[in-house]
Amino acid sequence: MSTQSARTRAPKVAVVPGDGIGQEVIAQGVRLIAALAPDIEVEWFDLGAERYLRDGTTLPDDVFARWQAEFDAVYLGALGDPRVPSNVHAKDILLGSRFRLDLYINQRPIRLLDARRCPLKGKGPQDVDIMVFRENTEDLYTGVGGTFKEGTADEVAQELCIATRKGVERIIRAAFAWARANGKTRVCMSDKSNAMRFTGGLWQRTFKLVAAEYPEITASHLYVDVLAMELVRAPERFEVIVTSNLFGDIITDLGAILQGGIGLACSGNIHPGRLSLFEPVHGSAPDIAGKGIANPMAAFLTAGQLLSHLGRPELEARIGEAVRGALLADEVTPELGGTLSTAQVGDAVLARL
Ligand code: NAD
Ligand code: IPM
Ligand code: MN
To answer: Which of 72, 103, 146, 255 could form an SS bridge with 11, CB 3.0 to 4.6 Å?
Structure first.
C-alpha cells in the first residue's frame, strides 16, 4: 500500500472518466492537474458502462491490485448509464472501491463561493461553510439483504442497515479531529435514533464517548429530518456534520444546492495515509451528456481535494480561488445562467491559475 510518507517516486493518479458527463468534466480536471502539478503521473483506465457493455468488465482484480500497489489516488468522473439498468458496473467500481479500499471517510464540503449562487435569501459565503463527514463503508450500502419469493405477490425484500462500533467510531473521530485541526468549534451528529433504535443507539453512545475527548468542541445532535430543515433555515449553525452513509448522501445533495448547484460539489473518499478516491458529488447526467455543457467546476474542486491528499494543500487553495473568480465573473456553464461550454470554463479557470 502506498503512503505519502513512504513515497520517493512522483505521485501516480489513476483516472477513471466513467460515464456520461463524467468523461467530459474529468478531461478538464486532468488538464488542470497537468498544468498545476506536471510531475504527477496520470494513467487512464477504460472502465465504465461502455467497457461493461463491450466485454462485461467492471473492476478487474488485476487493475485493482495495480491501483493498490502503484497509485496514490483515483480520480473518478461518475458512473451510471441508462443502458445498464442494474448499474452493476457502478456498484462494482464505485461502491466496490469504497469497500475494498476501506475508504471510510466521505468528505464533502458545502462551501458557498459566490453569494449570488445561493438560493437562500440573504445568505452569503460566511453563512454556508460546512464540512460533512459521511460514513462510507456501512449502513444501507453494504448490499447485505435479499429477496424471498421474488416476483410473486408474496415477495419479501430486505436491506440490512449495518453499523459497527469500529465504523461509527472512526468516522466520528475523523470529524472531531478535522474540526480540531481546522480551528472549528462545532460538530453536529445526525441520525434517526428516534426510529432506528439499534444503529441509532450505537451512534448516540459512540458520539458521546468521542465528544468527551474534545472538550473544546461543542458537540450537538439533530435528527436527520430536522437537519434537512435547519440546513435550509440557518446553514450558519453548522461547521462540521457527521452522519451515516445514506443520510450523508441525501444531505450533501441538499448542500450542493446551498453552494450554488450540483455542478459545484466535490468529494473525497478517503482512508488517511492510503490510496483514496476523489469524485464530484454529481452523477453522469444522461440528460446533458454529450452536449459539452456540463459544469467542470466540481471536478476542479475535486482535483483540489486530491492534490491536498497528495500533500499539496496550497494547490487546493489556488483552485478554489480560481473557481471563485470564474463564478464571480460569470464564466459559467448554462445551468448557472452562462453561455460557456465545459471546455471554455476549463480555459477560463486555467487562465486564472
Ligand atoms: P445527476 O447528478 O447525474 O444529475 C442530476 C441533475 O443535475 C441533472 O439534471 C443533471 O443534468 C444535473 N447535473 C449534474 N451534474 C451536472 C454538472 N456537472 N453540470 C451541470 N448539470 C449537472 O443525478 P442522476 O440523474 O440521479 O444520476 C444519473 C446517473 O448517475 C445514475 O445512474 C446515478 O446512479 C449516477 N450517479 C453516479 C454518481 C457517481 O458515480 N459518483 C453520483 C450520483 C449519481
Ligand atoms: C454519490 C452517489 C452514489 C451514492 C451512488 C451512485 C451509489 O449518489 O456518490 O453520492 O449513493 O453514494
Ligand atoms: Mn449521491
So the answer is: 72
